[in-house]
Each structure stands twice: as structure tokens, then as C-alpha cells.
Amino acid sequence: MHYDAIVIGAGLAGLTAVCQLIDAQKKVLLVDQEPENSIGGQAFWSFGGLFLVDTPEQRRLGIKDSKELAWQDWRGSAGFDRLEDEDYWAYEWAKAYVDFAAGEKYQWLKSQGIQFFPVVGWAERGGALAGGHGNSVPRFHIVWGTGPAIVEAFASKVLQASESGFIDYLPRHQVTDLMTEDGAVTGIQGNILENCIIRRGEESSREVIGTFEYTADAVVVASGGIGANLELVKENWPSRLGLPPENMVSGVPAFVDGKMLEITERAGGRIVNRDRMWHYTEGLKNWDPIWKNHGIRILPGPSSMWFDARGDRFKAPNFPGFDTLSTLEAIQKTGYDYSWFILTEKIIEKEFALSGSEQNMDLTNKSIKDVLKRVLPGPPKAVQAFKENGEDFVIAESLKDLVDGMNKLAGNDMLDFMHIKEQILARDREIDNPFSKDAQINALHGARNYIGDKLIRAASPHKILDPKAGPLIAVRLNILTRKTLGGLQTNLNGQVLNDEGNPVQGLFAAGEVSGFGGGGVHGYRSLEGTFLGGCLFTGLKVGKYLGTLKPEPNKAKAIEV
User: Where does the FAD-dependent oxidoreductase 2 FAD-binding domain start and stop, copy by copy (predicted)?
Assistant: First the structure.
């Protein structure tokens, strides 16, 4: 019952590591606190976007990409400024990841049976200088089948190996401590939780029915971040982003609680870049929630006008889809934790998509027929459902009625109709020509120079107050928690380092808990498509490394009560 490796967490990073260990014919134990139907963790709920460089999909769309351009974008976005210490290994992981994304990643994913939607998305467009934040070109490759398809590619292999007895997989096993001996991690301890029948994503019982201990030559922590633990989010909130939001919606299920970070730190692992996190500014309260405080993110096109809670239009680069972190900072410095989109029916039907596998059932179910319906008049089905049922939407035929509705929804009278009207009219006057001094209008014209955006993501330029484009729509946007960018510091083998910078013997980490590699591979900002990819890459690296190690003899301990 002594294992070559124990993997904590059956999310995408853990599954990827286990698949490599299966190939190496290692004796593996996989434990997870959730029921078996939650295998794949947070990745299951994702839109399935992956950061890839110079792919056939890009080339077919006329996109010229390269490893050099991707590395330029990564460095400009990350802003690594702790290279002597906390960013040292993060920088090394970043170089390795861009090499991977521009190299073997595409063919490796294809070998796992993963296919891609033909139109490449353009996320985080930046809006500043060439060397600053943002993707210079579209790189967001949507998996055909979204998050569930990625999970299936790895979970099926793990479950088959478990059923055949090649590995042991124990759901409802919650790790509470890492066992150590002479500074080395030798195993895990924890609680066996009662079995419970719930829908995937629902909060599971924490009723304890027993305890366990298992030993191994190596323990891999792949337990995710802190996104559902709002107390930890607020505790680590950086002062540079203003005060933490009073109210936030949760973009991840309750099991993303960050508890293994503290447990691993107690065993000697070092956490770095605690103040770096990636939360979205376009969150909606889910009208049909699966987990507590469930939020959904709008994936916006470039046309909606963005106003703060007082009715002032945000300045460049704080436009929809351009610079999430800058916009988050701008929102928080207003002293309010929400903002507004104002747009038209013509904009929403082409530019609004919702993040998440369950919000894109046409892509998730791989239905070409349903995907083609997106070009028909009217918003996508999931967006229309939010329009009709979501509490954050206001719809009106006149701007005066729209502003009155916005004030009513916010429970105050901060929005002045004439102030908003003047800003919209100023913007609308810029539409009369195919050029403009308005940075957002220029960005809209630029977006439509890319065939992918022109076809499905960027509405043709029109005046917001044009009655033919109506009705008018306002959307209240909440801060939505999502990713932890800092985490356990690891070297390029995935070994967790201690405060002195040395590997903790027997201890490894992969995925979000390691800041997706090195304790913060993204630096301050994500280019998007790099979270699932980071889980895959770190899991792959750790699994391959452990697959080459020879087991240590004469060790055995397994106790389960």
C-alpha cells in the first residue's frame, strides 16, 4: 500500500500528472475531497480556451503569429518585477510555457483527441503600446466540446486505469495534513467524508466518517486556488487595486477553497506572490445558480460603452475585453464594486457570449447545427435567458427610462441622465466617419479588420442612440472571483521549494496551487487561455519527471479507519 506517488486533487492538473504516471507504470494514488462525478474539477466548467501560438487555425484566418511575438506579449503583460526572488522560477516557467505553446502543445493536444473551433478568439487586447499588456493577435483557441471535452480526454484514461486496478482513485478523501520525516514529505493524512449524491458543482457534505493515512515516495499537490474562499481573497487583496470589493460573485464552485495551500506551507513549502490574482470585472449574478453566489462572466466584444457607478465613462485601455486588471483597478478606485455596460440590441446579439461550458451548449455538445444559429438575428439562447431572467439587466426604448431603471436597480440616484446622454452623444458623433479620435471607436474598426471578429464578435459600427439599433440595454457588472496567480514556488520539475529556495524532498505541485508554475507564471496579468494550459503543462512536467524516478524500497504504511 506504499505508493510511488500520491496526487491530491482530481482536477485537470492532477489528471494530467496521473496520466503520465500511468504511462510510466507507476503505482499511484489519486485522492479528492469531492464525489467522483466532480472529476475534472473547475476545468469542467470552463469555456475551454487554450493559448496556442502559430497554429493552422490562426494561419487559415490570416493571423501571423510567432514565438517571439508571444514572448513579447507575455513579458509585457506579466510585468515581472521580483526576479531576484519570488519571480525567479515564475519567469523560467513562463519561458518554458511559451516554448510549449509555440511548439509541441498543439500536436500533443491533438494526440489526446482534442479538436478546436475554427475561429480563434482575441482575448485581452491590451490597448497600450506594443511592448505592454495584451495579445497582439488572436490566440484564444476554443476546444470543440469546451471544458468537458478537455476533462474527458484525461479523466477517461484515469478512470479506466482505476477500474483495471492499475491505480487507486479515492473520492471523498479530504487531506488535512502532509506527513513529514526529517524535513521530507512522506505521505498524507486526512478525513474520509460521507458519500453524498449531488449535482456536479453543488457544495458537498463535510461530514466525517473515518480517517486515513497513506505513504509515498512523492506527493503532488494539485488542489487549485482560493477563488471560492472570499475571506482569503479579501485577505490577500493588493492595496494597489484599492480596497477589496464589499460584494463579489463566485466564478468557481465551493471546493476551490485554498486549504491545501496552508497545509503545504505548514509542511515546509513556500507561497509567493500572494497579492497576485485574476478576477473578472464583467460578472453577472446567475439567475439559475449551481453553487452558492454563482457568477457568470460576460465575454464582451469591443462596442459596449463602459461606465462606472457614478456614470463616468472609463478611459483607455478600460474597454470591454482589453485590459482586465487595469479595469478592475479603475473600478475599485471609484469606491464602488460595480459598473455598467450600456449597449444596443444590435450589439448584444453579436458581441455577448457567456463564459462556461454550461452557457455554451452548442459548443459543449459539439452541435454544428446549433453553432450556426449564432449568426441568426437575436442574442444566443443563454444570453437571451439572462436578458429575460437576470437581475442585472435593464431594457428600455428611451435613454431616460434606461437611466431611471439603472438607478432603481442600484438603489440610488447617482446616475444623471443628461451626463450620460452627453457622453453617448459625443461617442455617437464619432461614428459618422471610418476614422476617429475616440480610442474605443478606433479599436472597434481595428477589430473588424480581423475576419473572425467581423464574422461573429464585433457588431458593425452604429450609434448607440439610433432607434433602429434598439432597444437600449444596460447591464450591471459585478466583480467575479476566479484565479489565483500566486502560489507554491516550484522549480521546473515541479518540486516545491522551501524558504531557503531548496526543494522539499518528496513534495511537488501542479496547476493553480503552484501559480500554474513557479508560483506565478502569469506575473500580474493573464493573456487568457493560459489557465487550462497551465494545468496541462505543469501536470505534464511533474508527471514526466516522477515517471523517471526509481522507487525507494522498504517503505510501507497505509491506515484507513
Answer: 4-532
Decide if 431 contacts 307 (C-beta within 8 A): no
Rounded Cα distance, 453 and 539, in Å: 33
d(C-alpha 497, C-alpha 46), whole Å? 30
3-state helix, strand, coil in the chain (%, to 5): 35, 25, 40
- Whole-angstrom distance, CA of residue 70 vs CA of residue 82: 21
Q: Is 277 helix (H, G, I), strand (E, B) or coil?
A: strand
Q: How many helices (H) and strands (E) does the chain have?
A: 18, 21
Q: Outline where DSSP puts E strands in 277-350.
A: 277-285, 295-300, 305-308, 338-344
Per DSSP (E only), the strands in 172-304 are 173-181, 184-193, 208-221, 249-250, 271-272, 277-285, 295-300
Query: Which residues lie below 8 Å from residue 218, measured CB to CB, with a gap of 6+?
Result: 4, 5, 6, 506, 507, 508, 546, 549
CB 122 within 8 A of CB 447: yes
Coil/strand/helix, residue 279: strand
Whether pLDDT at 378 is above 90: no
Give the sign of the dihedral formed by CA 68, CA 71, CA 76, CA 79.
Answer: negative
The count of C-alpha atoms lying within 13 angstroms of the C-alpha of 337, restricted to the half-sphere facing its C-beta, is: 14
19-30: burial string, b at 16+ Cβ within 10 Å, e else: bbbbebebbbbb
What nine digits make up the cell of 530?
493560459
Angle at which helices 88-102 and 67-78 cross, to 10°: 150
Buried-state track 44-63, b at ≥16 Cβ within 10 A, e below 16: bbbbbbbbbbbbebbeebeb
Between CA 357 and CA 387 the distance in angstroms is 19
Provide DSSP, 85-142. TTTHHHHHHHHHHHHHHHTTHHHHHHHTT--B-SSPB------S-TTSSS-SS--EEE
β-strands 352-354, 295-300 pairing:
antiparallel
Contacts of 344 (CB under 8 A, 6+ apart): 462, 464, 466, 469, 470, 471, 472, 473
Tell whether the model's pLDDT for residue 560 goes beyond 80.
Answer: no
- As a whole number of angstroms, the distance between CA 438 and CA 467 comes to 22
Q: By CB neighbour count within 10 A (0-12 exposed, 13-18 middle, 19+ buried), where does 408 fall?
A: exposed
Residue 278 β-bridge partners: 483
What is the rounded (10 degree) CA torsion for 21, 268, 78, 482? 80
Task: Retrieve residue 2's grid coordinates.
Answer: 506504499
**Secondary structure (DSSP) of 2-40:** -EEEEEE--BHHHHHHHHHHHHTT--EEEEESS-GGGTB
Question: Average pLDDT of 321-329?
Answer: 97
Cell numbers found for residue 180: 513529514
> CA quadruple 246, 247, 251, 253: dihedral positive or negative?
positive
Instruction: Check residue 382 and give its pLDDT.
Output: 95
| Distance separating the N- and C-terminal Cα atoms of the chain | 15
Using alpha carbons, select from 94, 128, 175 the residue that is nearest to residue 443: 128
Q: How far apart are CA 394 and CA 412, in angstroms?
A: 15
Predicted confidence (pLDDT) at residue 63 exceeds the cutoff of 70: yes
